[in-house]
Amino acid sequence: MSDDLERGTSYFGVRNVEHAERDLERFDEAGLNAVLHTFSERDYEYYQGTMERIVEKSHDRGFTVYVNPWGVGRVFGGEAVSEFIGRRADARQVLSTGEGVPAACFSNPTFRRFVRNWTKAAVETGADVVFWDEPHWFIADWADISVPETAWTCHCEHCQRAFEAQYGESLPTDPTPQTDAFREDMLLEFLDEMMELVHGLGARNAVCLLPREDTEHGLSDWESLAANEFLDIFATDPYWAAFPHATGPESFVGEYTDRVVSLANEHDVDSQIWIQGFRLDDEPSTIEAVKTATETAVEGGVDSVFMWGYDGCRSISSIACDDPDAVWNAYLETVPSS
């Protein structure tokens, strides 16, 4: 299994190529064979050439290279600021109560053009895989703003027109099974468009869904994504200490590993699980939990396992582990090496 297993980590915050090379060298020495480089709006705007060099140095060491839309439009995962939603308030999602929120709308043509251009730049870095990370509609709790309890997105003019064209009636202000289905359809349509573009440019696609099968956090029907003709890698990130509904590293990671592996096998795509390496305390039981989660994913038959993120997220103080070295080493010691 270890010879075929993809073993990786996310990598972020370093745009000095020589510094990145030193980190890549130690990842290689530790037995990893894949790396995800975050590619934020800031990277897209200012660091294209730098990212091309970092990707090249990654390939020099034999890594499979992923890039992701880190925080782009605030509809993908990541600790990155979105300049787009600051500049283009007209492209934001709109609550059913009429207020705009700090997240771009998947239906908005301006945002779609922006992401298409981002996608072209992402593939031009030389990356092998574009990693669509945690795509989701606006989640109020994550934005740390108060909204009416029954308010939901999106009620922008583009969503209203699309809903009326699909259902022959006006978009209701109260959520219904139809509005849930509509949100899911719009998200899938967006991903389909971007993934087709990636394939046309010669790269592969991975999509990482949040570990919740509901429209509030992404998709309720995971099979509809797994069956997409442009998908190559089906992933989720069952971070057992981050989600309130998590039941523990073995059961939570095991449940979602089984789900992802089953769907991936059914639709002939690769499976991938992400291991939590952020916001963990330094209790011995927590370090053991990292090992348990990693073992559970590997023994569950995934094709690829990654940690978010490298060095226990030491460089991002707001999410760094209390003992980042212990967390990072627990992952490296547990994931099989070639």
Low-confidence stretches: none
> By CATH's scheme, which homologous superfamily applies?
Glycosidases
Provide a count of the helices: 12
**How much helix, percentage-wise, in residues?**
40-55%
Strand content: 15-25%
Query: Structural class of the helix and strand makeup?
Result: alpha/beta
- Strand line-up across the major sheet: 1-2-3-6-7-8-9-10
Question: What Rg is obtained from the alpha carbons, in whole angstroms?
Answer: 19 Å
Q: Quote the distance from N terminus to C terminus.
A: 9 Å
InterPro entries: GH
In short:
This protein is an alpha/beta fold and 338 residues long. It has twelve helices and ten strands.
List its salient traits.
globular, TIM Barrel, 338 residues, 15% strand, 8-stranded parallel β-barrel, 10 strands, GH, single chain
